[in-house]
User: Fold these one by one.
Assistant:
Number 1:
Amino acid sequence: MTQDPVSLDYAGPVALIGLDRPDKRNAISDTLLAALEARLVEAQQRARAIVVFGHGPCFCAGLDLSEHRSRTAEEVFHHSRGWHRVFRTLREGPVPAIAAVHGACVGGGLELAAACHIRVADTTAVFALPEGTRGIFVGGGATVHVARLLGAARMTDMMLTGRTLDAVAAERVGLVTYVEPAGEALVRAREVAARVAEAAPLTVMGVLQALPRIQDMAESDGLFVESLVAALAQTAPEAERRLAAFLEKRAPKAIRPQEPGE
Ligand code: 1HE
């Protein structure tokens, strides 16, 4: 029996989804993509936060180029649409996802990380878009979602020249929001996920569903939707419970003494 290319484990309310094809650097084959979709759907029914990570020496080497080589143009189109569907399941699903990136995070691997809601990198992480070098194009949502994170100018540079970003540069441009010592990305991502899992459900819904859409709206529409989501969040018993807990000094302050902002 061949090994499942995507592992799924749980740590309390946190699902741990691991790309598990280390001998091929977790390159995303059709089989791996299907397994990722299945594990995601399963995890989204049970978990309150998801961590996506890579087993072995890196996060993900992107599209499996050995499978891609013989695809026709029509097949590439439908293949790309399939990636969009799976990454939309992740991005627009109900459960926040945190990418834990170590080593290479390349092409489709970067698209996968970009489909997550928070990205944690360790100092071994290297981000690249080598499509120009390979003579192909991105197809997993990068032109929209990676460009939003990096800026189109930087993405153009990376795609046309093969320029890479290390973890510190990735944090500077806003691609990742945590940089950890080598070997610590998954540890930190699990801590972040445990915190995310405690967030109030309607706040999570607003952040995952409204915030990205508001980025596409005109200012007045965006502010209108923001007010509607604020009103909706107020209807949850959770809001009453959490506000009371703070006012009655039973909840932690927003800035805890042991935790500086950075
Ligand atoms: C692969 C792939 C792959 C590794 N498809 N087999 N992605 C790329 O252009 C990245 C291509 N990969 C690399 O540049 C390097 O492999 C890495 C920098 C990621 C890692 O290097 P290293 O030295 O740790 O590993 P390696 O020896 O290069 O690779 C180990 C094995 O994995 C080797 O196979 P083997 O049979 O010779 O052992 C590699 O051939 C295999 N391998 N990466 C297939 N990507 C929806 S559109 C998305 C578009 C893209 O993603 S384009 C970017 C594609």
Number 2:
Amino acid sequence: MSMTTVSMGEALIFRVAIPVPVYSLFDYLAPDNVELDNIKPGMRLEVPFGKAKKIAFLIEISQKSELEVSKLKRVFRILDQKSLLSSKDLQLLMWAANYYHHPLGEVISTAFPVPLRQGKSIVVKTPKSFALSPLGQVTLSTDLQKSPKQKSLLEKFQSSLLNLSETELSDWNINWKSSVNLLIEKRLIEIITPKTVKVEPADSIIRSDALQCNLQQQDAIDRVCGALDRFGVFLLEGVTGSGKTEVYLQIIHAVLARGQQVLVLVPEITLTPQLEDRFRNRFAVSIALFHSKLTDNQRQAGWLSMQQGESSIMLGTRSALFTPLMNPGLIILDEEHDASFKQQEGFRFSARDTAVYRAKLLDIPVLLGSATPSLESLYNVDKQRYQLMHLPERAGKATEPMMQLMDIRNKRIHEGLSDVLVEEIHRTLAKNEQVLLFLNRRGFAPTLICHGCGWVARCKRCDANLVIHFDEQRLRCHHCAQEQKLIRQCAACDSSELTPLGLGTERVEKVVTELFKDKITVRLDRDSTQRKGTLENYLQQINDGEVDIILGTQMLAKGHHFPNVTLVAILDVDSGLFSIDFHAAEKLAQMIVQVSGRAGRAEKPGKVIMQTRQPEHLLLTTLIKDGYRSFAKTALAERQEALLPPFSYQALLRVQAADANTPQLFFQAIIAALKKLDVGRTQILGPVSAPMAKRAGYFRYQLLFQNANRQELHGLLDALIPKISKLKQTNKVRWSLDVDPVDLY
Ligand code: ADP
Ligand code: ZN
Ligand code: ZN
């Protein structure tokens, strides 16, 4: 191959994307003496931008520019020697920018870990691992009697028989380094340098044996493993405890044996610390992590280790989806219905839908799993776009819990607990079994009201009440950062008769500890688990049987194993029944099934009690009598009737400003612009104020677009966006477009 060198005289244009809120690409002159053979789209560049420097991403090289070439600035330098993104990766990002109508530069930027986004050069520091040397294998640990640390380390290696990575050693004992060095000096263990992913004999990948599967599990495994070489979407529906994770593990094993990598996305890893352990216990390959509790550098290390093929599995949250893979083989999304797979700010992508598109581009399968599949996914099964696989039974010996609606109308209620429920709790505890109480509201009480004059403590910046946090003696807004000391006197009439109204987990904790004095209660919510390691500690205590009553918010609904919990009570199921968002029924049903899934996992049968004042509500009765699938069928029929998604497509234009007037002027201009466009069959609903009309000091309005024809809707958005960017009102508001919104707030 000849090297093309371009001299200063010729116009050679780099068309780049820059992470700024601008939809178009930017043209720059290529750097001097650039060797075009080495230049690939996706490379990071440093460019002058206004008075500053910015990181840009090369999209294409051109001979022409629509701008006057003499006015173009020159690229400062090229940061990458090779593009970190494959052409498929770039194609995916371009598709996503287009589909979600978000500026390409910002989209590409999100795909990179923060240090790379900021232009840091790549330093590949591969994590080391260690293994027994032949001498170490035959040395008796008792020979090291005099140095107990080295002795126990040698025993650790001898019992695991496999490589141990730095991470694993740190988990085992943070002071491992000196002992490892001493054992290396004694030639008992050796450093193993990581190798890139390659086809390996299947049994060298595995660390512990797979479980013996039941028929349905085996069928699911066989179906996906029979289609590993091509695109396909599989939906694995199975209640909690039905053995989905085991199915994932066995399919992953097959993919690893082909020398391919697997991307596993979960809603929130930090809430399910056991999951990582299960993966590490099963596989002897390097596993990368990517989630919000890691540092930027840790995330970058995981990202690069997948990009370079040193790790075979990535376990991550939503934003891990864009991790470049050297040799992709499978994408798994666990709890695919979970709303956290939709990014709610900035680049508002759905990790599920984008994962499906990515799998299609890569021609690999994608596996979606859930106890409560989203209505969209079930609809796609109906349309035969997704293949459904069902695990109807709980794995092992566990049985389904019994669900019961408890009518609490006219019943005596003590701080959220009815007498009958208190009875049930006593009975369960008497058998030495655990109880789980669910209330999806943290704090002591959601409202502080004056008994004298009716004054309510409100947030000054939001349309919301301040929540009482009694333990910390604070009043806090859950929608912005506003907080203040808990007051003792009414701000309006000075009365000291301030009354907490409603229930939060703190309040229930108080009453539970009073009612069950000799029992141990733990509260799991965002407030009680702030400090690192607290959640893990609590989970450990629960599993060790040191806890009798577990009380918490939706944090409890996620994948935990509480084998000794036999009674689950949902204290206030009604609060989910009356929402103006059409997604609410689906979310409530999912939450009920997920929380119920905590009960009776082992051999003890479980019971779920839902306190309600709506015992005849169709959603609740359908769910309990006929199960989630029936509920989903009814709910889908309702959506079809109302032509709501998935029977139509939506996009939500949100606007906010510091005063109430500007958004209205902005919308008037938008409506005028829309009049000049061909809206086709797109319904335009609004503008209306957002359900929370003021938040964090901003007045909020929205306009909803809906169309049963996706192309038509997107065509309209394509035409509208350049117009929005040009409106003179645009600079005075903050606006965003949410394609396929999952939350209409
Ligand atoms: P899910 O992911 O659906 O909640 P898991 O895969 O975590 O289910 O399985 C729940 C429990 O049942 C785990 O403790 C797991 O080890 C066990 N399990 C899964 N499959 C089997 C099986 N085929 N035989 C026995 N136990 C199993
Ligand atoms: Zn008052
Ligand atoms: Zn607020």
